[in-house]
């Protein structure tokens, strides 16, 4: 890796976290910002680069969140920043529906080339992950003439009305926001840690297929949508064979198989896309987050016959494929290539998995078996926390670990249907030393908290 960092890559605290300036902002925020937007790490960021975030009090924190898997190449990557500035100096917007520009087409070419499968593909660009998912469903419904959409337990697909319907977890995402979009059906996921079918992904897929056949009937199903590794739902990695069996069933029944790679895509899991680990070729793939290093950009990519089935004017949006966001995406992709960030993600995955597995073993040996499972791939690894020796979720422990790690200068996140998963999503350009230091804080906090609970 050749990326030189602008900010010193170190953890350095000069005040409590959050410090006085961060707390001042929190006060202003309370009287200006809607209460529904709740920050998990209440610090005021003034700078960020590589693996560090600097707050207004002068604290330098280790970033193990990447703004939820977004800033994979660093939050102020030089190549991206230069491309953004250059494009902003030329033009910030034309609306691709009005007048075109090369960046949009170039991003679509990159997506068509890099997504799994060498069939003829097309892409269309939007701004958010939820918007990409909405449009994948629109395209699948139009192309098949069928109404139903199948999603899974623990799924997260967004916060708009249709994507709330697709998202599984009620609080906080859906609670009291209904009624939800119709013709969305939920099926059991393969969740090896909690699933009686365990590591048998084929059986888990067949269980879902039997329910689809009996409750909906295949000829009414437009699309099956699944995250190849579930993000918000708890970094659930389905058992081998689950995705492939589902995709194959979709193929034979004329159902569009949609892989939602908004969180897992763009080198995050050690390959360009997480479904590649299973050799699965989706009909449609949704991407966002890591695609443009924080500039709002998302996409639907897939079979040309599906995307081109839509009538001219049927897809769009004022900002979709904004030229500045496209410039950021092209620079981000270049950085991922130049620095082989897929290999880097695999390297990070080994360090994180080994460290957390060692901690799990040590805790169990001391009679504190609070780590139920260490799982994930590449730069997307989590621990599921449980009451010692059981599978009963321990969300309080997860919250406490993340809060204490923050007070010691490490930003991490919780996730999971039961809120009991601590997930690590470091920028893929983080230095090994800094990563190990951040992990050390997480494991220290885990060990201390487990021993005292
Ligand atoms: N699909 C798989 O992970 C976004 C949500 C943060 P948007 N996940 C982070 C929050 O609490 O709002 C996500 C995802 C998958 C779709 C989305 C939605 O992407 O860009 O947030 O709309």
Protein described:
The chain is of the alpha/beta class and 453 residues long. Helices cover 38% and strands 16% of the residues. It contains 13 helices and 15 strands. The chain has helices at 20-32, 66-69, 78-90, 102-114, 129-144, 161-166, 201-215, 242-253, 304-307, 323-338, 341-365, 395-407, 432-452; strands at 45-49, 52-55, 60-63, 121-126, 148-152, 184-187, 221-226, 256-260, 284-287, 298-303, 371-377, 380-385, 410-411, 413-415, 421-424. Helix 4 packs across helix 10 (323-338) and helix 7 (201-215) runs parallel beside helix 8 (242-253). The longest helix is centred in the last third of the chain and has 25 residues, at 341-365. The chain is globular. The model has no long low-confidence stretch (mean pLDDT 97). Bound molecules: ligand PLZ. The site of ligand PLZ has 16 residues, from helix 5.
What amount of the residues lies in strands?
15-25%
| CATH level-1 class of the largest domain | Alpha Beta
Cα Rg? 22 Å
What is the makeup of the main sheet? Answer: 7 strands, mixed
CATH topology-level fold name of the largest domain: Aspartate Aminotransferase, domain 2
Please give the order of strands in the largest beta sheet: 4-10-9-8-7-5-6
Keywords:
453 residues, four-stranded mixed sheet, globular, 2 domains, Aspartate Aminotransferase, domain 1, binds ligand PLZ, seven-stranded mixed sheet, 15 strands, Aspartate Aminotransferase, domain 2
Summarize the structure.
The chain is an alpha/beta fold.
